[in-house]
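S1.2 Input.
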Amino acid sequence: IWLLYYIAGAVGIAYWIVYIARFVYPIEQPLAHSVAWIVNLISNQIGIPTRIFQNAPGVLLVLVIVQEVGWTVLNIGVESSGLLEMSVLVSLISFYPGWSMKRRLASISGGLIATWVANIFRMLLIVVMLHVLGKRALVLAHTYLGKLFFFLLTIGIYWYLVTLPTIRNLVLLPKSSKGTNT
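S1.3 Output.
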């Protein structure tokens, strides 16, 4: 009975979260800026020169030192900001049946932070690969390894916050004996 409600609710709210975050209360740009800013700070700390493009705060410039020395532009938009993954996480937890509001809010809060941090690691992986391997590694770094890395981290976060508690609940449920309704 709950499955159709859960699927419809989770898909619907994910769509509306993305829509609202992009067009009604535009948090996509501050989110992209926060990712660019933190990646910039960490990259410079580990010796990889990067810059934030001042006229577009969601754009990160990465200095490439191999092949043709120069700057590579990384535009942190809706796909690289983590907004889509965060929206799916919020929707999966919001419509999960049987959890209290307190548990949902705690799981959403922890999950949003974990997803944001995972996205930082993804962008750092891309920056390091560009810096070390050069501009020709952009497709490999962004399209393949970066997305695969972030996908695996995101699935791990979803598993830890939704699947693992479900498995634990199923294992801890009392077994009903034959012939009784519980």
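S1.4 Remarks. The longest helix spans residues 138-172.
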